[in-house]
TrEMBL record:
The chain holds residues 611 to 848 of 848 of the full protein. This is Monosaccharide ABC transporter ATP-binding protein, CUT2 family. It comes from the Bacteria. GO terms for molecular function: ATP binding. Its main location: membrane. It is found in: Cell membrane.
Amino acid sequence: ADTPEVLGVGALVTGYGAEPVLHGIDLQVRRGEMVALLGANGAGKSTLMRALAGLQRPVRGGIHFEGVDLTRLPAEAIVARGLVLVPEGRQVFGELSVLDNIRLGAFLDPRDMDKRVEEMLQRFPRLRERLHQRAGLLSGGEQQMLAVARGLMSRPRILLLDEPSLGLAPKVIAELFAALDRLRSEGMTILLVDQMAALALALADRAYVIEGGRVVAQGTAAEIAADDALAQAYLGAH
Ligand code: ATP
């Protein structure tokens, strides 16, 4: 609890038209933490992730990361600062090879490319077997691992993952979450959105529950998991 805050979101308001989707979000992530962001469909989780990554302009409020004000920075500058989003829907380049997809993650800083690709292949051995295939031919789980590997190639200091388990079989989800748990144990700071609330809470240190663009609950993962009313209202019956 006494580790420093690295990401601070204050009174963040944003939306797509005149109507805001986020109505003043406050959220903090400390170094080395895994924080889960939970809530029903349409609560605003993806919108928040996109705002953090500079893909969605804040109307009011601020975003600070490691002492730098990110609120008005363009998305590339935010990536360069080490805040990296793996977006919802595992957006790999289907016509490119697995290797080229991985390499694309390092476009801002291609130093030690081969060494870093090798690290990713050790982390996700399934990708090595498919290295020269088109990414579009991978299974959903392999594509999600590829999306995470591409994100890691950008040398994140905080990794934002939007719904990594979406549409994956339970066995594949377990494999993916094991990889996330390993990343966390290596010291990576992670902000995770996932519909699999029970799984996300099993890994996370703390959680926020978002409803209608507002934080309606926050606490340690254990506290949130033990709250029956929350489980009924927001966390689904997974
Ligand atoms: P989900 O799990 O379904 O992705 P979410 O919590 O991530 O839900 P958001 O995707 O952030 O929710 O959506 C929040 C609200 O913003 C919803 O009402 C949605 O319809 C609206 N919204 C999202 N993207 C856009 C867009 N590009 N243009 C207009 N409205 C949008």
